[in-house]
Design goal:
single chain, alpha/beta, Rossmann fold, six-stranded mixed β-sheet, four-stranded antiparallel β-sheet, 10 strands, about 30% helix, globular, binds adenosine-5'-triphosphate, ATP-binding
Length: about 240
């Protein structure tokens, strides 16, 4: 039985007279990676910002169920990696990880170098300032923050877009390992990534969430998703 669940109930959000989320309800469970798919402007980032408490929903709730007990979500329950990385540009990668570890002491903590090895940031690069990093390297450093803290809920907003093929495969494997302890929700437009990595696909369309059941048993995966997202009732 799954120990940890995140339950969203009827979350609504409008900006002025634009209704973006019209009653999102869904239960996400530990042990799964969920792929959140939706057209541009469907409201994926808005939903993540609400869960991360960067933004307040107009109505609706989201709660955690731990071993059958329900409680509010605490900020430390959630880690989010954004498309745009907010990293301190004038620290080196090494200094950033060291600083981050001071703030977030972990049991069985690895050394700074061991963490940087996990995301394959090489010896020379780790002592350069982050400002000089490529966007893929910056993404890897951002992903390291959730790898270190392993929060109960991990929200990944287009995390692997700038990461090269080899690093992408390594990071995918890392998230596969993290999912046994966490609920992972991955927003992506990369259908191949969603198919490879996710256990369940969730569509955000017309301001509502729905599950795409048994997507692996469908032969024409891409065609099916494109059709689902382009039907007339789309949010756009
Ligand atoms: N702070 C804001 N103020 C006004 N409108 C906003 C705000 N944040 C988002 N929106 C609007 O809400 C809608 C959903 O935006 P959001 O960024 O959540 O979509 P998305 O699904 O993440 O899109 P994409 O795939 O393009 O990143 C868009 O029309 C956007 O312009």
């Amino acid at each position: 039985m799954n120990r940890l669940k995140l339950e969203l109930r009827d979350i609504q959000k409008s900006f002025g007279n634009q209704s973006v989320l019209k009653g999102c309800s869904y239960t996400f469970e530990q042990g799964n990676i969920y792929g959140l798919l939706g057209r541009n402007g469907a409201g994926k980032t808005t939903l993540f910002n609400i869960l991360y408490e960067e933004m307040k929903q107009d109505s609706g709730t989201f709660t955690l169920h731990i071993d059958g007990k329900e409680r509010a979500v605490d900020p430390e329950d959630i880690g989010m990696v954004f498309t745009d990385n907010y990293l301190p540009e004038f620290l080196t990668g090494y200094e950033f990880v060291s600083f981050f570890l001071d703030l977030h002491k972990q049991e069985n903590q690895l050394s700074v170098d061991e963490y940087l090895d996990i995301v394959s940031i090489d010896e020379e690069s780790r002592h350069r300032i982050i400002k000089t990093y490529s966007s893929g390297m910056q993404s890897k450093l951002s992903l390291l923050t959730v790898i270190i803290t392993q929060p109960k809920i991990i929200l990944l907003d287009e995390p692997l877009t700038a990461v090269d093929v080899v690093s992408g495969i390594e990071l995918k494997q890392l998230f596969m390992n993290l999912k046994s302890e966490s609920i992972i929700i991955l927003s992506t437009h990369m259908l191949q990534l969603a198919e490879d990595m996710c256990d369940e696909l969730v569509l955000l369309k017309g301001g509502l969430l729905s599950s795409m059941e048994d997507f692996r048993s469908e032969e024409q995966f891409e065609k099916q998703i494109i059709q689902a997202l382009s039907e007339e009732s789309s949010a756009l």
